[in-house]
Amino acid sequence: MSQIGLQQLFQKKLNKLWIALIIVVVIISLLMAVIIYRDYYISDVKKIISNLEFFLGEINQSFLLIENYYNTQMERFFNNIYTAQQNGADEEMLIKQIEYWENDLIKLNLDGLNIEKINYYFIDQKGVITATDYQKDFGLDLSEFDNLWQDLLALDNGEVLLRPLDNESSTGRTRLYSYLKLADGSYFELGILFENYYPKLQTQINELTGGYQASLNLYSSDFMEMYGTKQTVTEAEKVLFNKSLDTEQLLSQNRSFFEKDFYFAYNGRTGTRYIKLSLVNNRIKRYLYILFTFLLAVAFVILYLKDNFSLVIKNLIEPITIISEKMEVFDPGDSKEINIQRSKIKEIDQIRCSFLEMVDEIQASYEQMTAYNQEIELVNKKLKSSYIEVENLSTNLERMISLITNLGRTESINEDDFLTQLLKTAARVVPETDYGSIYLYEEKYVRFVHTIGHNKEKLNQVKLPKHKFISENHQIEIVKHIEETSLEGFEKEKRDIFMEATKPIQATLSFDLYMENVAVFGISLDIANESSKQFSSNAIKTISSFKEIASSFYLLRKYKSLQKQFTRDIILSITKMLEIHDQYTKGHSESVADLSEKIALELGLSVEMGEKAYWAGLVHDIGKINIPDYILNKKAELTNKEYDIIKKHPSWGYETLKSSEELDEIAKYVLYHHERWDGAGYPFGLARKEIPLISQIIMAADAWDAMTTTRSYRKALDKEEAIRELKDNIGSQFSPKVAKALLRVIDK
Q1: Minimal CA–CA distance to 505: which of 475, 541, 479, 466?
Q2: Which of 163, 283, 364, 495 has the fewest CB atoms below 10 angstroms from its CB?
Q3: Are 603 and 700 in contact (CB under 8 A)?
Q4: Do residues 202 and 190 lie in contact, with contact meaning Cβ atoms separated by under 8 Å?
Q5: pLDDT category of residue 169 using cuts at 50, 70 and 90
Q6: 683 preceded by cis ω (within 30°)?
Q7: Is 330 left (phi over 0), alpha (psi -120 to 50) or beta?
């Protein structure tokens, strides 16, 4: 039997392997291409078409919902605007009503479409914009836009023109414009500018189509571009759109092997819309490119390995295997010497020498790393300790900031709540603290506000005289076994209660806060008797910060109290001036104010809202300052012109009060206090929940005082007649909820 060399035998076997490998790779690649196209691509397209039909229907419903909702809101608002103008509201008052309505509408987020801006426009009879909050369009002549201007000319007074959603080409924002013809023949326009809606649609399309490149285009009834890539609609595409509109189906057209266009049309409330979606199958492209690249790479690897593999096997496999075995059992911590026989091949011998050198270096590095590791462990322990310290400082700082934040809320925060928070924060920030207490120096006795560890209720039973409890030292001090000195001169029963209520302590850190040389409160932080801790110098520095915070709190309370009293005195002085001007309102404003506050509290409103009702009631007629005396004090029936002047006093009162930051909210309540529940009031004809609750309360209180007070032109009604009159007007003039609360107040 003839024999061949190992290298020849191995080479012969490898040649057969290369040929078989090439055949297998080619067959698999072809099968993958066919399967991807037939089973994946075709089914994927069907799935996408099904998703698109649903999605395009959703777009239709979404646009109809958005248009119907906001157009309905604007129709309602336009009716209010038209009514207000007929009732004599000037442009400035209309703008105020627009801003009030804008604030409510802009909070809405319908279908994920946020309102970015609402702009108004006043347009004269010639089509020129004469007033707007979008100054870029000031002076724009709408008569130059023939189609729009003809639609506006066709409107009757009070009639509304609603427009469909469209897209602003300069900013890419979605917008909705509507128009109202006013009683004087001029026009009023509102434009709602939404955030760009197209990216949302494009994102949804991308999610539906997966690995496809999708491009969405929307067109209006005249095939004008609304969203998309600014593509012009061809005549052939118009035919497809019209066919889709007639059949109510999604139509498609292949643009190339990888590209497909879909067409869909529908009739909306404000006209026809057309939607075009272009899909490019990037996924199939990528698969084919990857497959082709893979085939090229495989062919190159096969050719390269075929020429070099035999030589690699012959010269490298055996000696490298020996080295690999040595490396596998190599232990850098083992100092035993490694021996490898020299090779006859120069390169392999160089690898052997390099390996032995590497072993020596690794063993040396291992020893050095072991030493470094020990040093690092020590450093890590120190860093961990420092980190814990820094973390504690950061936590304490956050607690201090939280406490300081409450200084700006001195009117709303209760004194006891602030002192409780002060004690809790101090106890956390001063780490030595085990127990603590904070107490107010009241008229005769000490009242414990909050305690930590001690029994507050029992301590307050003792009734410690404050003159014995106050420290004569105004500084922060540390006292040892403070209970021994605190109870001197007390009878045994009180001493027993005190000792039972407190924990045994060995040291106390405390101070008393003085304001204008009068002790206000004291705070004590205690260390338990069995503890080995002591208060550090840092604890004294920290508690001094809390003393400054508390001092600032009481100074701010005093300042805001004086400021509030000053405002109260000013308003009372103005009210007295009105009584001089109008002989029939003497005492009326104060009566309305008192009754308004009682109604507010009866309705369950907060004390703060009750005060607002009081002040709004006190100044509700302040606008009458601008009405001539002969009208205010007229005994005969008022003429229509005189009554129109009277009806302006809520607006005049609003203008008088709104300039004050303190009275800005009160001004709004005054503005609407003659609005009726049924919408027949003035100046804007608001109805039901459109009227602020405080304004509803003032309306009822004002009417009750007027009915039960004698005037020169009529006698006062007795209580039964006034109640009957009040009940007869529930649901028309008065809010049912407010009127019922007023009746309960009257019965008390």
Answers
A1: 479
A2: 364
A3: no
A4: no
A5: low
A6: yes
A7: beta
Q: Which residues contact 222 (CB under 8 A, 6 or more apart)?
A: none
Q: What is the pLDDT of residues 431-486, one digit of tens each?
A: 889 999 998 988 888 899 899 999 989 888 888 888 777 877 778 888 888 776 66
Do 497 and 461 contact (CB within 8 A), yes or no? Answer: yes
Cα gap 405→393, rounded to integer Å: 18
How far is it, in rounded angstroms, from Cα 477 to Cα 428? 19
Closest CA to 679 of 275, 87, 57, 8: 87
Q: How far apart are CA 7 and CA 18, in angstroms?
A: 16
- pLDDT, residue 248, reads 79
Query: Cα separation of 389 and 455, whole Å?
Result: 32
* Cα–Cα dist 256/264, whole Å: 20
Q: Where are the alpha helices (DSSP H) in 120-172?
A: 146-153
CA–CA gap between residue 518 and residue 509 (Å, rounded) = 21
For CA atoms 24, 26, 27, 33, give the dihedral sign: positive
**Residues 469, 487 contacting (CB under 8 angstroms):** no
Alpha carbons within 13 A on the beta-carbon side of 342: 2
Q: Which residues contact 372 (CB under 8 A, 6 or more apart)?
A: none
CA distance 191 to 394: 50
Residue 703 in this model has a pLDDT that exceeds 50? yes
DSSP state of 445: B
Token pair listed for 234: 């061809």
User: Using CA atoms, how far apart are residues 391 and 114, in angstroms rounded to an integer?
Assistant: 42
By the 8 A CB rule, do 441 and 470 touch?
A: yes
Residue 12, both tokens = 């012969």
Question: What is the per-residue pLDDT for 671?
Answer: 92
Comparing 453 with 380, the larger pLDDT belongs to 453
pLDDT recorded at residue 410: 45
Query: Is pLDDT at 346 greater than 80 in this prediction?
Result: no
Handedness of CA 330, 332, 337, 343 (dihedral sign): positive
pLDDT in tens, 670-684: 999 999 999 999 999
Q: Give how far the C-alpha of residue 119 lies from the chain's centroid of Cα atoms, to the nearest Å.
A: 23
State the CB neighbour count (10 A cutoff) for residue 471.
Answer: 14
Strands 113-123 and 129-132: antiparallel
Query: Where residue 57 falls among pLDDT bands split at 50, 70, 90?
Result: low
The 10 Å CB-count burial string (b at 16+, else e) for 179-199 is: bbbbeeebbbbbbbbbebbbe
Cα dihedral 515, 516, 520, 523 sign: positive
Cα separation, 49 vs 212, whole angstroms = 13
The Cα-based distances of 615 to 46, 73, 667 in angstroms read: 69, 34, 10
End-to-end CA distance of the chain: 129
Please give the residue that has the higher pLDDT: either 260 or 1.
260
Q: Give the C-alpha separation, 699 to 679, whole Å.
A: 13
Is 225 in contact with 217 (CB distance < 8 Å)? yes
Q: Measured between alpha carbons, how far is 510 from 475 in angstroms, rounded to an integer?
A: 9
Instruction: Name which of 61, 257, 70, 264 is nearest 163 in CA terms.
Output: 70
Residue of higher predicted confidence among 265 and 256: 265
DSSP per-residue letters across 459-484: HHHH--BHHHHS-S--S-EEEESHHH
The larger pLDDT score, comparing residue 428 to residue 203, is at 428
**Structural contact between residues 278 and 254, judged by C-beta atoms closer than 8 angstroms:** no
- What are the tokens at 550? 């508390």
Helix axes 664-671, 649-657, angle to 10 degrees: 180
- Residue 131 is encoded by which pair of tokens? 């007033």
